[in-house]
């Protein structure tokens, strides 16, 4: 049986170096997302998109030991801007799941979403020049979860979602709901894909609770960064990474004085914007 593209098992063969065929696969995923966004623009103008009316508190992650462990690791290793991206990715993906009426493991999904960029942090277990940050981040998260005595089966779901998330588009039937939602949430936050399917109040509340900050600086490393899909392309440079194209501006709020308290430790489970 052929190993699914981007999974941790797939990453064993070459640490995430893309073949030419796999590069084409990645670009095809990007083209698919862009084409779907065009249809969403048309559907939105025709009032055919029906966002689900939910609050942040309706989508708060479960109060479990795995969630607590993942939050603690993320707070210890991520910059504030990268941590906020993890929370936004979680909530965007959860709301898109509600839009599609998709069932998923909320505990595994939150864990993967909040840790999906751990391979970009100073705690990373491999240099970015040597291994794709998504693959190394999956390995690091796997070791962490197993050391915390989390179930191996659930840990595997989490780490494959982390390793595959920069495929950008992950069909549920092939990769499972958790991996699909991590990718959806991340690309919604970074590119704005599918944002028209979300309520305006939800988006504004989320962005005020977890401000974007300097996300480009949070995602780009001083090291040469493994680019598209988070998987190394031979001879690549940091400029090849999608984040170098300035796509992080898609979800910014208009500049205004903040009326909300800054993000604090443990805010993920409370998840209600202060002052709302």
Q: Notable features of this structure?
A:
276 residues; mainly alpha; 12 helices; globular; disordered C terminus
Write the layout of secondary structure elements.
Elements: H1 8-11, H2 20-45, H3 65-77, H4 80-100, H5 106-115, H6 133-147, H7 152-164, H8 172-175, H9 177-191, H10 200-209, H11 215-219, H12 267-270
Helix pairs in contact: 3-5, 4-5, 4-9, 5-7, 5-9, 6-7, 7-9
Strand portion, in percent?
under 5%
Unreliable segments (pLDDT under 50, ≥5 consecutive)? Answer: 225-250, 253-267, 270-276
Globally, the shape reads globular
The protein's oligomeric status is single chain
Backbone structural class: mainly alpha
In short:
The chain is an all-alpha fold. It is built from twelve helices and no strands.
Could you explain how this protein is built, in words?
The protein is mainly alpha-helical and 276 residues long. The chain has one domain (8-252, 259-268). Helix content is 51%, strand content 0%. The chain contains twelve helices and no strands. Helix 3 (65-77) packs parallel to helix 5 and helix 7 runs parallel beside helix 9. The longest helix has 26 residues, at 20-45.
